[in-house]
């Protein structure tokens, strides 16, 4: 696949504008004091479906021509992307097939069902996910909307950066969590398309630091067994996504789950919003690596708020 | 004391505008479907200090002339009002004495300390609170800013209604939790000052339904022992507050703590925001008494988000 351009991201922004929420930006004096610089949180937990994933999924769904769209869409996802694709498909009135690996957070599965999609279960490995998707594609003709290694998805996720830079002009750093890398790639392309001087940072759990190791070693590492509470960041970074991170010199900042949980509580207490562990890695990184951000105005992406309230990690 | 007028509320709005946040309004398709009518939540959990109380406290603090202000302010409060007064005093650079009854939520006490106020402990009874306040007033000359039976406080709390009606024109019902009744009185005066056709509703825990019983019986009931998780609503309604509720025909809707907790989880899940039990009584009332709201567009006040994350009620 070809990575999208800033123009593709701008087209995506126009395409999803009737469907997606312009999410608010929040900040806190106390967090600024702890980090030492002003931090502007882009609240994608307040996006439709409770996560940024709706941007990419709706861009993909509304990019299809009518004949293709009528056969539906399929994806594999442990949660937020599946829910986002289900919502986007519903808004266009087309079928959605979501392959959910065993062990996914139950509230995320419930949301997919509530959005009217058909759920298919599979083993929690990359190979099982891809095999199940190929099977459903073959049987239904549904269009595969990969959760991150898809130019339409990457372009959609990237739309949050022009929006953020309109809301907070003059940012000189942007920080996002890195899982499969759809958000990271889209945000990097958009940020540097608009202002090549913006510094880019990725936050990643130490127990799923494949992007950190890949960038350090200069090649994409192989499959690994993730060990982190950040359920949205357990995936191996995609190949095109890795290329985008390398090209845009994204600096990866690994954080421990303990740091993530402490940051999550701080975000809940200070901003009064519900965010996922995955989202909280960005504040954990700000607090662990303050030197990286000294003198900068930072935009940090809070990716989602779909949490099982009966199983909070503290 | 004289109850404030709509003009007083408009003056308060101008007075606090440099200090207070214009809080957002949120909604959810799923909640609207469950209630059966459109509900617009005024998010005072996103107010400074995490509660609507900052409106009244800052109106009181900035109403004082310099000579009086320099002696400081004093109040008794189990939490949000104390924190709000501490923050407002700090912004004006004057001392604040906060009398905190034993048993107050620790995170709220921590916030008062963080805001730089002097904490004084007392027994958790109305008599102890008032005696302690009188003592500090006598010793310091500090101005008493009562948490709810104070015209400046009532006017300040009322400022959220003109703000809400600008954000969502055409509401025909406003619903708020009722504790001491400062918010209820201010909102009632403001709403009927702007549009006498607006229907007013109060939500109250069954275990602290003194406003319900007072309005039913036609006179203010006496002190009672509250039994509710809604820590912000355990106070007896004030005398002028009761008169305001009666004059404005506020209909009280009691809800159980179980209903409040279920509503709290639903607000967290659907809106992705952190709200207190006290705030959640409004959604509990909407879900328990849907017939009262049929055919109306409802504004509901989410009063605060100061929760002990280590002691969630589910």
From TrEMBL, chains A, B:
Question: Which keywords accompany this UniProt record?
Answer: Lyase, Magnesium, Pyridoxal phosphate
Please state every residue range assigned to the domain named Tryptophan synthase beta chain-like PALP.
18-304
| Cofactor(s) needed by this chain | Ca(2+); Mg(2+); pyridoxal 5'-phosphate; Mn(2+)
Question: What does the record give under GO molecular function?
Answer: ATP binding; L-serine ammonia-lyase activity; magnesium ion binding; pyridoxal phosphate binding; serine racemase activity; threonine racemase activity
Query: Which BP terms from GO are recorded?
Result: D-serine biosynthetic process
Q: Which family does it belong to?
A: Belongs to the serine/threonine dehydratase family.
Name of this chain's protein: L-threonine ammonia-lyase
